[in-house]
Specification:
Elements: E1 5-12, E2 21-28, E3 36-42, E4 46-54, E5 57-58, E6 67-68, E7 72-74, E8 77-84, H1 86-89, E9 98-105, E10 113-117, E11 123-126, E12 146-152, E13 158-161, E14 177-180, E15 185-188, H2 194-201, H3 225-228, H4 244-252, H5 261-269, E16 324-330, H6 335-339, E17 345-348, E18 354-356, E19 370-373, E20 395-396, E21 409-410, E22 414-416
Parallel strand pairs: 1-9, 14-18, 16-21
Antiparallel strand pairs: 2-3, 3-8, 4-5, 4-7, 4-9, 6-8, 10-11, 10-12, 12-15, 13-14, 15-22, 16-19, 17-18, 19-20
């Protein structure tokens, strides 16, 4: 049967940069629906993704497992090769009229999804959640052996940070203010898990849930900030090489870190200026005191497997409830100290309110504790003190410090979107 392919070449550029894909050729290498080889030339280093469309619509998972110079950071050169196995990945479908799409993304405007294989360090990028291999982000491997991250569209977006009028919290650290971050960034779809810890270190699971059958899918707890990052942000701009974050950086080449409170809150709000609720009630998206009995794996209130409740509108799970998430910021005790963490004024909003830019790196902990964001599994939804779980963007003043191994706090990783998250 004759196979007819159309070719679409797409270049996504930032500023003056524009990688060019050219000389795309497609060669079926076997009979029937056997392997297909796509070759192309690339004149600038870029992230190149691959897709197959019929009638202008992506076939999704059918193109997810393309190999070679696809879905990854790719250096300039000629004769780049992509291998696709339609007989395996798109079984039972004819290729007639299929459209191959080779897309070059600027390194400063990378694709929405990043996947890092933890043990081997391979990094790939995908243009949509539907193209993330093996059934998408809900596959168990993205909770254990791989990290899946979603790009946050934060660059130049003006939004309100802090406690809104509904939140009934007047703590100094919750002063409302407009924020405009200067760059996009990737954030973990899930809280960092015990399984991911074991994949990175080959060490035993340190969490209290290690006796459970699916313990690798539970968030990493009982692990100190000192071991995770190796240094407080005020002492080291980057994680130290011998920390777990340093190990992940060396293995993948990605600039992993913990978020600051503004990055965390933007991700949690998912584009909403007011309520952060995804459904009609907090229990839809968060593990809290009232709903832990819905988890058949547990006989007492505890942390839960990540990704079992509803994701927020950015596709992130457990941004509310389950565990508190540590940041690189500190809780401050006075309004004056809080205002010092707002960053420089970069403009004025339409209603005359000042807009603050990127928060500065805090140069001292001022004797305070590391800021913990989000609610926790033991909090009741009726709480408004510290904004509890109901108002989870709030920064908590809890007792976590550099050297303590907390039972109720864990981590969610970020990396910059610039350069595809790669260390520059």
């Amino acid at each position: 049967m004759k196979k007819t392919f159309l070719v679409t070449i797409v270049c996504l550029a930032a500023g003056a940069f524009a990688a060019t894909v050219s000389n795309v050729e497609i060669r079926p290498t076997g009979a029937g629906l056997g392997p297909v080889e796509v070759t192309y030339d690339l004149d600038e280093a870029a992230i190149v993704t691959f897709d197959v469309l019929t009638n202008g619509v992506s076939i999704g998972q059918g193109a997810a497992n393309a190999g070679g110079d696809a879905n990854r950071y790719t250096l300039a050169g000629t004769g780049k090769r992509i291998f696709w196995m339609p007989h395996r990945d798109w079984e039972g479908h004819a290729l007639d009229g299929a459209q191959v799409q080779v897309t070059a993304w600027s390194l400063d405007v990378p694709p929405p999804y990043l996947v890092a294989e933890i043990h081997g360090g391979d990094v790939q990028y995908y243009a949509s959640a539907d193209l993330v291999p093996d059934g998408g982000v809900t596959n168990r491997k993205y909770k254990t052996s791989h990290l899946v991250m979603r790009k946050m569209p934060a660059k130049d977006v003006v939004w309100t940070m802090g406690s809104t009028a509904d939140d009934a919290c007047t703590a100094a650290r919750e002063v409302m203010h407009r924020v405009k971050l200067s760059s996009d960034y990737y954030v973990g779809v899930y809280e960092f898990t015990a399984g991911q810890f074991m994949s990175a270190t080959n060490l035993a699971n340190p969490t209290a849930t290690k006796s459970l059958a699916n313990a690798g899918c539970y968030p990493l707890t009982h692990y100190t900030y000192a071991n995770m990052r190796g240094a407080l942000k005020c002492n080291s701009a980057d994680p130290t090489p011998n920390s777990l974050m340093g190990v992940l950086r060396a293995r993948t080449g990605l600039a992993f870190d913990l978020p600051n409170a503004a990055q965390w809150e933007f991700a949690c709000r998912a584009g909403h200026g007011g309520s952060v609720l995804v459904g009609s009630k907090i229990e839809d998206s968060a593990w809290v005191y009232e709903n832990w009995q819905e988890d058949p794996a547990l006989t007492a209130n505890s942390t839960h497997e990540v990704g079992l409740r509803r994701a927020n509108d950015f596709g992130l799970y457990d941004m509310q409830g389950n565990i508190l998430e540590l940041t690189v910021d500190y809780i401050t005790s006075t309004e004056a100290q809080t205002l010092a963490t707002f960053g420089a004024v970069v403009g004025t909003d339409t209603d005359g309110q000042p807009i603050y830019g990127d928060p500065p790196v805090q140069t001292s902990s001022d004797g305070g504790n590391i800021a913990r964001c989000g609610g926790c599994y033991y909090e009741q939804t009726a709480l408004t003190y510290d904004r509890g779980t109901r108002f989870s963007p709030g920064r908590h003043a809890g007792g976590t410090n550099y050297g303590s191994a907390s039972t109720d706090a864990g981590y969610r990783l970020i990396c910059p979107a610039a350069n595809g998250g790669r260390i520059q």
